[in-house]
């Protein structure tokens, strides 16, 4: 069997077999970010993301600055989705040595701009040569134990919320997005979130991940979902991916408190799109005409 | 100017400009491993290494198991060279989806075998598609503050020692080497090492790195350097690279204590190859015929 026939989700489950972790590992393979008990009051968060030329960007359409920005921004978004703060980054870069030095300058300028904005320490990395550019950023973050949010705490009755608007990111946002770090920190500090993820592979697939990890179902409403002007259609917006928005659930009481106190103060819009249901009710999308569609995991699967 | 014309060492120095780090960063860009003050009694070590098909291995000559072994082994060797213990690894893998699943199985089998041997927790990663295989491993380690060894503590008068034998690694050892972790730990726990590095880019270039960072010179002796049977010649052995041996310096008193007490107990041979001198004396190689050659940084530079 070929790797593409197995699919990414099954591949990762298969490769994880036989991996032994000690007691300090709170969340290992399977989440976007590992959670490690390292200090007494905080968890260490540990994540990486690889950017490959012609998969995640095209050299003709992205500036070097944007490539660097995106490479680091994706990992900051991962840390934000756990409620944490990014601290230390390493950058492995495979670059074509025939490229001008100004290209490398631009990539690192993009990374440094974002690192300085969010107080991330760029502490090292590795460089090697390759015809196709590959940039892997690994990032260590930190979160107060009480503020950790994972994918797996969604409860039936929870409301489902999303920041910003989804879809059409490929037209530019995927290269220029601002990781929702300030929003996530402000949320976890003031409210009890039950589950959170950043939308990287499409709203449907990433919500499915929360539901799968939490053992729950959901009902979301077409009329509520905030679709970006850049999206080609509602259907496409649901699986476009690389939105880097926060998707999270909280109890109705907590959501009520959030909308009462926060909405005017938060610059980034937060929209209610549906509710978490019992697992037996499945994952359903209620269309504007009242029809209900059953949702199955799709969106951007890498293999 | 092209990246290849600038060279790797200058490129890294250039890219590091404008990077801001807070006080917790003890060693940032420039060392193979970052050192971070995170807990009270220990430093966090943080390193990454990228393996690229046709640069670091050829698919025809390396088994998937060996590719995985090497990918993780290189980072363990980095942590060992700082005197530390490896703890948590992330693996970013770009793989051709047309490859059989057994290929991915093999790569992860190689990593898991080494991880389990040294108690490394594989806590996650990222997978994506790419025609050429790229595997980036990032590794977090830990070292008691008193046991940290860096490149920059070599003092004139120190003796220079190396584990194992160098050269000819390309004939197979680079795919099957055992990281010198047990040796390094046993050394730093019992002896005072002034500087250490793992030999990845050739004995000469890596010793030059110690001398450059320490502000010192050195005199090493052809007749003392342990050359592997696999090496094509003495000259080639000095710059072959990927030996993954430990190269370190200690005071003559400490070295004497080492040779008196340890040699019989340590399975891996340790050989005295020369002494650290004043910076003004430069870096010299004393040949068997008594002639002295001046050494300039060479070996395997990536661009």
| Strand order across the largest sheet of chain A | 8-10-7-11-9-12-13
**Beta-strand segment tally of chain A:** 13
Q: Shape of chain A from CA axes?
A: globular
Structural class of chain A: alpha+beta
**CATH architecture call of the largest domain in chain A:** Alpha-Beta Complex
Indicate the low-confidence ranges of chain A by residue numbers: 299-303
SSE series of chain A? HHEEEHEHEEEHHEHEHEHEEE
- Rg on CA atoms of chain A, Å: 19 Å
Greatest interface and its participating residue counts: A-B, 77 and 77 residues
Q: What is the CATH homology-level superfamily of the largest domain in chain A?
A: PurM-like C-terminal domain
CATH topology of the largest domain in chain A: Phosphoribosyl-aminoimidazole Synthetase, Chain A, domain 2
How helix-rich are the residues of chain A, as a percent range?
25-40%
Question: What share of residues are in beta strands of chain A?
Answer: 25-35%
Mean pLDDT of chain A: 92
* Biggest sheet record of chain A: 7 strands, mixed
Oligomer: homodimer
Structure description:
The structure is a homodimer of 303-residue chains. With 303 residues, chain A is an alpha+beta fold. Chain A folds into two domains: 22-146, 2-Layer Sandwich (60s Ribosomal Protein L30, Chain: A); 149-294, Alpha-Beta Complex (Phosphoribosyl-aminoimidazole Synthetase, Chain A, domain 2). Helix content of chain A is 30%, strand content 27%. Chain A contains nine helices and 13 strands. In chain A, the strands form two sheets. Chain A has a seven-stranded mixed beta sheet with strand order 8-10-7-11-9-12-13, sandwiched between helices. A six-stranded mixed beta sheet of chain A has the order 1-2-3-6-4-5. In chain A, helix 3 (64-81) runs parallel beside helix 4. Chain A is globular, with a radius of gyration of 19 Å. In chain A, 52% of the residues are buried. Mean pLDDT of chain A is 92; it is low at 299-303. At the A-B interface, helix 1, helix 2, strand 3, strand 4 and helix 4 of A face helix 1, helix 2, strand 3, strand 4 and helix 4 of B.
């Amino acid at each position: 069997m070929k790797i593409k026939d197995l699919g990414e989700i099954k591949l990762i489950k298969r490769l994880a077999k036989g991996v032994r972790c000690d007691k300090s590992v709170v969340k290992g393979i399977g989440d976007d970010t590992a959670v490690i008990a390292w200090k007494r009051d905080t968890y260490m968060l540990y994540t990486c993301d690889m950017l490959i030329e012609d998969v995640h960007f095209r050299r003709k359409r992205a500036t070097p600055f944007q490539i660097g920005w995106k490479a680091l921004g994706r990992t900051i978004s991962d840390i934000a989705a756990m409620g944490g703060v990014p601290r230390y980054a390493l950058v492995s870069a495979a670059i074509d040595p025939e490229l001008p030095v100004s290209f490398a300058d631009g990539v690192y300028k993009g990374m440094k701009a974002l690192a300085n904005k969010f107080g991330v320490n760029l502490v090292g990395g590795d460089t090697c040569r390759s015809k196709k550019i590959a940039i892997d950023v690994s990032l260590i973050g930190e979160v107060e134990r009480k503020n950790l949010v994972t994918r797996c705490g969604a409860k039936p009755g929870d409301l489902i919320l999303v920041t910003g608007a989804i879809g059409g990111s490929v037209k530019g946002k995927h290269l220029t997005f601002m990781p929702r770090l300030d929003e996530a920190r402000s949320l976890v500090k003031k409210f009890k979130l039950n589950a959170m993820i950043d939308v990287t592979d499409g709203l449907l697939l990433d919500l499915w991940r929360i539901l799968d990890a939490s053992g729950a179902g959901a009902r979301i409403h077409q009329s509520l979902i905030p679709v970006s002007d850049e999206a080609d259609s509602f259907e496409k917006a649901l699986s476009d991916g690389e939105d880097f928005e926060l998707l999270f659930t909280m109890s109705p009481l907590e959501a009520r408190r959030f909308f009462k106190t926060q909405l005017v103060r938060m610059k980034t819009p937060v929209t209610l799109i549906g509710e978490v249901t019992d697992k037996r009710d499945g994952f359903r999308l209620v269309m504007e005409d009242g029809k209900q569609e059953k949702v199955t995991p799709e969106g951007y699967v890498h293999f």
